[in-house]
């Protein structure tokens, strides 16, 4: 199933179809070209914040070379306006522009005409503004808080304390704590109203422990599937039929930077395994200490196999 986004242009007042499609594959929403940095060219600030560091440096270098090339052409058009520079030499004008833009201070070459002084003044202003913008963008990229949170590849449905329960687990990959961590789970699926209208409905899943004062290691999240649960009576086939999607959202305060961090994950119908259980990753050392084995973080086993072996 595919959806196509339509956008109304403010200038032409016509419907434009951008090159963005939302495909439902295994119940998961996938946006074509999502994460491709050059698709944000209409929003340069967002582009410079989301592009990779290599792309950010490349864009800065290209802009720097382009600005100097433009001013070099302006100096060449001014004739013999730079002292100790070869008249009409693009490279002499280019390196003179580099000195002016970066406020390095002139050596052998310097402006010697009124025309050159005007161009130097304009370029000096652009150089000061450029340095301020690049400094602000670099700081914004460095200071943007990020969370390194790992979610299990699958969610399981098994019995817990005598009740059918949906479970998934998450772990903090940094050696610090996420304070006042909160986690929320949502079920999104296709439904048709009594009037015959189609829409995507969002259900809040009630969790047994939706928050923790300190999230440092792992967190096994549980949702009881009872009569009040939107998953009650559902199966893998019904989840696929309704294009169901389980979305997880986690937020908290990173104790290192004292800022709010976010993480999210989604499970499609095939990612929810029934009658399965997570492998225990908490073990004990011979001297009585506990440790966590993250190598089996995503591993599950069949509950029926466990009952047969016992």
UniProtKB/TrEMBL annotation:
Keyword Transmembrane: yes
Main location: membrane
Location in the cell: Membrane
GO BP of this protein: potassium ion import across plasma membrane; regulation of monoatomic ion transmembrane transport
Domain Potassium channel: 70-138
Keywords tagged on the record: Ion channel, Ion transport, Membrane, Potassium, Potassium transport, Transmembrane, Transmembrane helix, Transport, Voltage-gated channel
Coiled coil residues, start to end: none
UniProt GO cellular component terms: monoatomic ion channel complex; plasma membrane
Pfam families: Ion_trans_2 (PF07885), IRK_C (PF17655)
Keyword Cell cycle attached: no
Chain segments annotated as transmembrane: 53-77, 89-108, 114-140
Single annotated GO MF: inward rectifier potassium channel activity
Membrane topology reported for the UniProt record: Multi-pass membrane protein
Residue intervals of the Inward rectifier potassium channel C-terminal domain: 149-305
Protein name, as recorded: K+ channel, inward rectifier, conserved region 2 domain protein
Organism annotation: Richelia sinica FACHB-800
Organismal lineage: Bacteria, Bacillati, Cyanobacteriota, Cyanophyceae, Nostocales
């Amino acid at each position: 199933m595919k959806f196509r986004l339509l956008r109304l242009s403010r200038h032409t007042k016509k419907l434009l179809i951008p090159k963005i499609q939302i495909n439902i594959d295994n119940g998961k929403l996938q946006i074509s070209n999502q994460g491709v940095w050059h698709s944000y060219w209409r929003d340069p600030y967002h582009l410079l914040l989301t592009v990779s560091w290599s792309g950010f440096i490349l864009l800065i270098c290209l802009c720097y070379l382009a600005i100097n090339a433009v001013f070099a052409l302006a100096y060449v058009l001014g004739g013999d306006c730079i002292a100790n520079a070869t008249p009409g030499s693009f490279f002499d004008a280019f390196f003179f522009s580099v000195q002016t833009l970066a406020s390095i201070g002139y050596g052998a070459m310097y402006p010697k005409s009124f025309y050159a002084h005007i161009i130097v003044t304009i370029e000096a202003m652009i150089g000061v503004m450029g340095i301020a913008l690049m400094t602000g963008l670099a700081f914004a990229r460095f200071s943007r808080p990020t969370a390194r949170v790992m979610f299990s590849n699958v969610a399981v449905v098994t019995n817990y304390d005598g009740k059918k329960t949906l479970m998934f687990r998450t772990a903090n990959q940094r050696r610090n704590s996420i304070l006042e961590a909160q986690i929320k789970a949502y079920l999104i699926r296709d439904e048709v109203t009594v009037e015959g209208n189609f829409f995507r409905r969002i259900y809040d899943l009630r969790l047994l422990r939706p928050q923790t004062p300190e999230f440092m290691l792992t967190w096994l999240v549980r949702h009881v599937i009872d009569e009040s649960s939107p998953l009650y009576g559902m199966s893998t086939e019904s989840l696929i039929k309704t294009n169901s999607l389980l979305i997880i959202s986690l937020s908290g305060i990173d104790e290192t930077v004292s800022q709010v961090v976010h993480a999210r994950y989604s499970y499609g119908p095939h990612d929810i395994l029934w009658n399965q259980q997570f492998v225990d990753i908490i073990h004990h050392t011979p001297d009585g200490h506990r440790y966590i084995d993250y190598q089996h973080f995503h591993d599950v086993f069949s509950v029926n196999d466990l009952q047969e072996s016992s």
